[in-house]
Design brief:
By secondary structure, this protein is mainly alpha-helical. It has 14 helices and 6 strands. The chain has helices at about 15-30, 30-40, 45-65, 75-95, 110-135, 140-160, 185-210, 210-220, 220-225, 230-260, 270-280, 290-305, 310-325, 335-345, and strands at about 100, 105, 170, 175, 180, 260. A hairpin with a 2-residue loop joins strand 4 (about 175) and strand 5. Helix 1 (about 15-30) packs across helix 14 and helix 4 (about 75-95) crosses helix 10. Mean pLDDT is about 85; it is low at about 1-15, about 330-340 and about 345.
Length: about 350
């Protein structure tokens, strides 16, 4: 067999293997509800619904971390605000009271076809405003400023006693997509799975475009890009806003799934979890964080069943991945993944 073919897929060239791997993963996720029925274990659907939702947020974070070089600790805010937009508007819909924003009165609604796009708009605006400040920095300064912004927003929602404050807000109004009630169980899982597929396709297309090529060039050498006339700040703000919009979808889906929103969804710990998921899966591949989300939640489930101090072995596991699999579970040691990575970097 030629040396340039993946040893684990005899007779199949690298291009097919590079395309096949993410397709196989997404197909396996699509079959999960069928497997849950066969095993008579509905918990699998609930678990993997959460995994898929966090995979969406991690894929969005990886867009700016793995391809933009921006290690953001702000994405919990985008995820949390996405959920709060759904929860707050549903709260006003249930109470039949308008949401007052100064002189502006906004009617409450439980229609996710309205609240999810509105959540995206809110997060894009937030990303633009904060990006004007934090994206002028880099390295450790960027990490600390995004962390500071995240904690400011976290404490703001903790102080919102009208919407539950630290205890969070229960969503009592029935959520729906236009004339259709929001699905539950396996049906809602497929909604989340479809959103993940759409996010992967969208971000993959952006990364392969001229915008993505310039963004990667900026991440590798921003000074040289600026010297060549590239408006680096504009590109980074645009990437930050795109990432925020996709992350807000994950937050809205999480709120819909759990019928509850809480300031805990905006904590810096949630941001750190997303970074760990991205690093576990692989920052060099668009779909790497999907593997990271699966590994993260399955490891958490398994280790917590063994000991209440599961964070210690989990932390050791993350350290080992960082030492021995420097580009993540799916990126390192896989010939097909390496080919996909090279293809992605060169468009």
């Amino acid at each position: 067999m030629p040396k340039d073919l993946p040893a684990f897929i005899p007779g199949i060239d690298r291009r097919f293997a590079g395309i096949a791997l993410p397709v196989i993963v997404m197909a396996a996720l699509a079959l999960l509800p069928w497997l849950a029925v066969r095993l008579d274990d509905p918990f699998l659907v609930r678990l993997f619904t959460r995994i898929v939702i966090f995979a969406i947020a991690a894929v969005a974070l990886n867009f700016v971390l793995g391809f933009g070089g921006l290690a953001s600790l702000f994405h919990a805010s985008f995820m949390g605000i996405g959920g709060y937009v759904v929860g707050v508007l549903a709260h006003h819909d249930a109470n039949e009271t308008p949401l007052m924003l100064g002189p502006l009165a906004i009617s409450g609604t439980s229609d996710l076809l309205i609240t999810i796009p509105l959540a995206m708009v809110c997060c894009v605006l937030l990303a633009f405003i904060t990006g004007l400040v934090c994206l002028r920095t880099s390295g450790i300064y960027f990490i600390m400023i995004t962390l500071a912004f995240n904690q400011m927003i976290f404490y703001y929602f903790v102080a919102l006693e009208r919407y539950g404050g630290e205890d969070g807000l229960q969503i009592l109004s029935p959520l729906h997509f236009g004339p259709f009630a929001a699905p539950k169980g396996a049906a809602f899982y497929y909604v989340c799975w479809g959103a993940l597929c759409a996010s992967l396709l969208l971000l993959r297309q952006i990364i392969s475009s001229r915008f993505g090529i310039v963004l990667r060039a900026i991440s590798q050498n921003e000074r040289r890009a600026i010297a060549l006339g590239v408006p680096a700040l504009r590109y980074k703000i645009a990437a930050f806003a795109i990432s925020a919009a996709v992350t807000s979808i994950a937050g809205a889906l999480l709120a819909t799934n759990q019928k509850f929103v809480s300031p805990a969804d905006l904590s810096w710990i949630r941001s750190a979890d997303l970074v760990i998921i991205v690093v576990l899966g692989g920052i060099s591949l668009v779909w790497g964080p999907v593997i990271g989300a699966i590994a993260f939640f399955l490891a958490e489930l398994l280790l917590s069943s063994w000991t209440i101090h599961w964070q210690l072995p989990f932390g050791i596991l993350v350290i080992l991945v960082g030492i021995f699999l420097k580009e993540g579970i799916i990126s390192s040691g896989s010939p097909a993944a390496a080919w996909t990575r090279r293809r992605t970097r060169h468009g």
